[in-house]
Amino acid sequence: MPETEKRPSSSPDTPVAEATREELLLRLDEAEARSLDYWLEAVTSSVAGASTVEELKGTLSWRITRPLRAVRIVYGQARRSGPREAVNVVRVRLAQIRQARKRG
Fold first, then answer.
1. What does the alpha-carbon distance between residue 81 and residue 73 come to, in Å, rounded to a whole number?
2. Which of 51, 72, 54 is nearest to 62 (CA)?
3. Distance from C-alpha of 83 to C-alpha of 74, rounded to nearest angstrom
């Protein structure tokens, strides 16, 4: 085999490759979360930005995709710390939402 055509020592199905893939996906999720947090902080720190965010949250698209965003957050939590911890985080968050609704 010519020098330029060497094959990798592991196939994509090996445990090492799968672990690397999972690590890269986790790093991608973390980078996306940091970018979103940065954007939200920048936008909401200004008066005009805060009203823009409120207008965005009032759109039909935002309301429709809200459950999907929640699922993605829970999925990310489950991948990071396991399903039990993800369920505990969901329980705590739902309790916070219920308390906020009771307060008005």
1. 12
2. 54
3. 9
* Structural tokens at position 24: 């890269």
Q: What is the length of the chain? A: 104
Q: How many CB atoms lie within 10 A of CB 34?
A: 10
The encoded tokens of residue 9 equal: 């020592």
Is the CB of residue 8 less than 8 Å from the CB of residue 2?
no
Q: Model pTM greater than 0.70?
A: no
Q: How far is residue 70's CA from residue 66's CA, in Å, rounded to a whole number?
A: 6
- pLDDT tens, per residue, the chain with 104 residues: 445 555 455 555 566 677 788 888 888 888 888 888 888 777 777 777 677 778 888 888 888 888 888 888 888 888 888 888 888 888 888 888 888 888 87
| Cα 22 from Cα 29, distance rounded (Å) | 11
Only one residue has tokens 């940091």, namely 34
